[in-house]
Amino acid sequence: MEQKIAVKVDDLTVAYNYKPVLWDIDLEIPEGVLMAIVGPNGAGKSTLIKAILGILKPIAGSVSIYEKPYEKQRSLVAYVPQKGSVDWDFPTTALDVVMMGTYGSLGWIKRPGQKEKKAALEALEKVGMLPFKSRQISQLSGGQQQRIFLARALVQDASIYFMDEPFQGVDATTEIAIINILKELRKAGKTVIVVHHDLQTVPEYFDWVTFLNVKKIATGPVKDIFNDDNLTKTYGINYKVSIQE
Amino acid sequence: MDLQEYFSLVFSDYTLRTITLGTAILGAVTGMLGSFAVLRKQSLLGDAISHAALPGIAIAFLITGAKDSNTLLLGALVSGLLGTFWIRGIITKTHLKSDTALGLILSLFFGFGMLLLTFIQKQPNANQAGLDKYLFGQAATLVESDVWLMAIVTGLCLFVLLLFWKEFKILLFDKDYAKTLGFNTKTIDILITSFIVLAIVLGLQTVGVVLMSAMLLAPAAAARQWTNSLSKMVFLAAVFGAFSGVFGTAISSSQNNLSTGPVIVLVASVFVVFSFIFSPSRGLLFRQIRFIANRRDLEQQKTLAFMYHIAETHDNISHPHTIKILNNFQGFTRKTLQKLVDKEYVMLDGTMWSLTQKGFDKASNLYNQQAKEDE
Question: Which of A131, A133, A204 is CA-nearest to residue A167?
């Protein structure tokens, strides 16, 4: 059966100053996979996501979502930024942050109403944060803040989810809770792309993987390409996957 | 004139009423917009903008030769906006950090402005005197048309704020995310910044170039202490700003020769200091009180738990023990022991203590609770 391509990246090149951060990336992500992007620090993992989502302007290259330019398909895409990218002392509540997930479909000027509030409450429920809905966001733990961000993306009810290190700084319980939600999303036919740091858990959590170090090293099913060879090519050191058994 | 006289005159006296209304409206609009500047961590932007407005005032005077405040403020607006866009340009196009860019533009424009002012003062023109009032402001020069202008801008600002509330909020909290939702963040950004520039320019006549940034920051910083909701913060900042304006005007006009702008800023600072100390959730005072209370509670609980462990080893939980064995236990003081006695958790008999049934139950509860939380 021919699998549909959810995200297609062509010749993507990004540079902040002089040195390219991403060089000539071609990438096809099939629909319905749970994919990890792995690579060393400075490999351009977050940059890749940001460039795909148009947060950063690439020097060259194009991105299409289900065979149409990304700009026309925004409503199909949801984003979970790194937790540290915002100021959590901002005067607002957990529910309010989750509601922001509805702003995209509302468009300019229109305010969220009962329908949006209901959707936000459901998303909070899904991530187990409903009891904290009125909590000021600075009074949430790191793991709870991460779940709030996840809930905000869930509210968007997208087909494709991009997540930037959702497991960073969360405890084991939260990590399990988050991965269960990601697996549920996959089960529902969604495509989930995750910047991931912990190589140990790649085979356990993901079915698809992309190795990245400025250039794309490899991409494909975890069971086929998650091996010493690719890890060594990506991380530059002789890497042994003693973890697979 | 004393304060009482001021308040009885404020409704009847034309000049007093105009000035008071002007400073109140100014305080409200700068407080509102200041909240956005503070939350965007652009507190110094206001300072740079107000200083950048000075050469505009001077150039407007040189071109028109008139001291009409609207013309001069138009000049201020143009050079304020120019300064702002230069700052943005420097930040995006070079490696310089925003504080450097702000500092550069602030001193460059202010220096140029001062140069022009001294140049103007040397001109053989009887009309030139008084431009330096824009340095520290002179509320007494406010006339009815100035107040009208302020009211119109404030109304417009309020309208835009309500219309784009959701867009402003998401831009302030998470700009990148707003972009992925399809919002043109640059437009929202320019909208907010333009209003901040406009509010600053309006305040130059009253508060002056040098102190204007305090009008933006002080009410917002004070308001942040009292609430965890953006809308309440903006509202409170507007209220604090307005009150600073009114009280500042009242104090300065009841004491002869006190310049209004600095007094308004001082009143706003009093709001800030008061809020930093007395806010129930974020204030220093209550935080310290909570901190001490928590420590005391924990000390008592620790001591009680320690006693519980000793008592546990005996069949009779009320078996008396000597106080001496507690002395080795860190965190134990006579005071905590007395507190425990007061709560009837512990009985004292000379140098011996024993746990009561109530104390034992309490301690075993604590113990279970702790174990549950650790799970």
Answer: A204
What is the bridge-based pairing of β-strands A191-195 and A34-38? Answer: parallel
Contacts of B180 in chain A (CB under 8 A): 53-55, 74, 77-79, 104
Phi first, then psi, for residue B25 (nearest 5°) are -65, -45
Look at B177 and A92 and tell me if their CB atoms are within 8 Å.
Answer: no
Residues of B with Cβ-Cβ distance to A93 under 8 angstroms: 228-229
Answer left, alpha or beta for residue B65, where phi above 0 means left and psi between -120 and 50 means alpha.
left
What confidence tens digit (pLDDT) does each residue in A49-65 have? 999 999 999 999 999 99
- Nearest-CA distance from B164 to chain A in Å? 6
Can you list the residues of chain A whose pLDDT is less than 50?
Answer: 1, 243-245
**B333: Cβ contacts below 8 Å, ≥ 6 apart:** B299
Single-letter amino acid code for the residue at A56? L
Which residues, other chains included, contact B42 with Cβ-Cβ below 8 Å and sequence gap of 6+? B98
ipTM score assigned to the predicted complex? 0.93
**How much is the pTM?**
0.87
Q: How far apart are CA B285 and CA B197, in angstroms?
A: 36
**Which domains does chain B possess?**
3-281 (1.10.3470.10), 286-369 (1.10.10)
Helix axes B14-39, B144-163, angle to 10 degrees: 30
Closest listed residue to residue A116, CA positions, set A87, A149, A156: A156
Residue B13 or residue A39, greater confidence: A39
Task: Please list, in sequence order, all residues whose beta carbon lies within 8 angstroms of the beta carbon of residue B302, skipping any fewer than 6 positions away.
Answer: B329, B331
Helices (H), B40-68: 43-52, 54-64
**Whole-angstrom distance, CA of residue A241 vs CA of residue B107:** 58
CB of B140 within 8 A of CB of B248?
A: no
